[in-house]
Design goal:
Structural class: mainly beta
Shape: globular
Strand order of the largest sheet: 3-4-6-5-7-2-1-10
Pfam families: Pro_isomerase
Number of domains: 1
Family: Belongs to the cyclophilin-type PPIase family.
Protein name: Peptidyl-prolyl cis-trans isomerase
CATH superfamily: Cyclophilin-like
Largest sheet: 8 strands, antiparallel
Helix content: 10-25%
InterPro entries: Cyclophilin-like_dom_sf, Cyclophilin-type_PPIase, Cyclophilin-type_PPIase_CS, Cyclophilin-type_PPIase_dom, E_coli_cyclophilin_A-like
Number of helices: 2
Function: PPIases accelerate the folding of proteins. It catalyzes the cis-trans isomerization of proline imidic peptide bonds in oligopeptides.
Number of strands: 10
Order of helices and strands: EEHEEEEEHEEE
């Protein structure tokens, strides 16, 4: 279990090491390294998702490890409260950035082993603090340094705690 302590409150996440071992271990690695501390939720769309884990408050993108294999084909769904890895258009391009679903977003699920069908790999779920996630989703947003949907007041991940 991982607790993300944010400027809005704590979000507790349970990882699914059985169905998403590569993604879960990748997330844990970044947590153990302190990578997420000081990053912001840089893309917030109410009713859809909140995305973070890659940018600092000045929108500098942090250097990451190599991309991981996409595990979206392992049966986990992009449901309300699930956490998944963000990626580029390339299916196997996820590194550190993640998002938490604010709704059931089945259009993000795996449908085929094609670029369009791969989907986004869910690797856990919020088990406490969903009200924090929803409040982040309601933040006022704008454009900052070429990025849309950025909260006007930075929402930071201040601390990450791994609970065994």
């Amino acid at each position: 279990m991982v607790i993300l302590s944010t400027t809005y409150g704590d979000i507790q996440i349970e990882l699914n090491l059985d169905k998403a071992p590569v993604s879960s271990k990748n997330f844990l690695r970044y947590c153990q390294e302190g990578f997420y501390e000081g990053t912001i939720f840089h893309r917030v769309i109410d009713g859809f998702m909140i995305q973070g884990g890659g940018h600092t408050e000045d929108m500098t993108e942090k250097d990451t490890h190599a991309p991981i294999a996409n595990e979206a084909n392992r049966g986990l769904k992009n449901m309300t409260g699930s956490i998944a890895f963000a990626r580029t258009d390339a299916p196997h391009s996820a590194t550190a950035q993640f998002f938490i679903n604010l709704d059931d977003n089945d259009f993000l699920d795996h449908t085929a082993k094609t670029n369009n069908g791969w989907g986004y790999a869910v690797f856990g779920k919020v088990t406490a603090g969903m009200e924090v996630v929803n409040n982040i989703g309601k933040a006022m947003t704008g454009t900052k340094k070429g990025h849309d949907d950025v909260p006007l007041d930075a929402i930071k991940i201040e601390k990450v705690t791994i609970v065994e």
